[in-house]
Amino acid sequence: MKNSFFSRFTPKEPKFFPLLRQLAEILSDASDTLVESMGHDSPSDRADYYKRIKDFERNGDKLTHTIFDELGTTFITPFDREDIHDLASSIDDVIDGINSCAKRIHIYNPRPISDSGKELALLIQQEAECIIKAMDELETFRKKPAALRGYCAKLHDIENHADDLYELFIKKLFEEEKDCIEIIKIKEIMYELEKTTDAAEHVGKILRNFIVKYA
Description:
By secondary structure, the chain is mainly alpha-helical. It has helices at residues 5-9, 16-37, 43-73, 81-108, 115-137, 146-176, 180-214. Helix 4 packs antiparallel against helix 7 (180-214).
């Protein structure tokens, strides 16, 4: 526990801060690639972007497992082991979500992605930027939690905007689209994009718990 006499005077292993930062960088790279992919509609381009994002997803999995391995072999950690585990898992979940979006676009090959779909991808990118900045605060937030709290609030606000955008789009989709197959394709892709914004907001919830527990 953070308040124990022993934990106050025992050096903490700092390796987890750069590892979590690296994981957030993979997330950011994957989100940038997703946004870029939205401007390309040919099946070959979509396949290429999916492959690139899949590589990020695999690298994220490897780094997440490295963090888990380090948790098992490190004597003193900067936060409780389960908290670091949950944080790394939640960031990896966002990368997995981006991969799922790209996979569905590649497999379903819908008509050009709507402006709403592109906007959801941009919101995921914004969330990834917030998460990187939040990782930069991890080592010092105990003394000054305001910045980390602000990133958590921004993640929450972005996810709320994504919810509204998704609901409006689905309403219009069923009103205006006449091709049933296309409805199924587009709806599932949009759902996966919106679900990925939820996964990013969950990172913020875990970080809020860090503030309550350690600041």
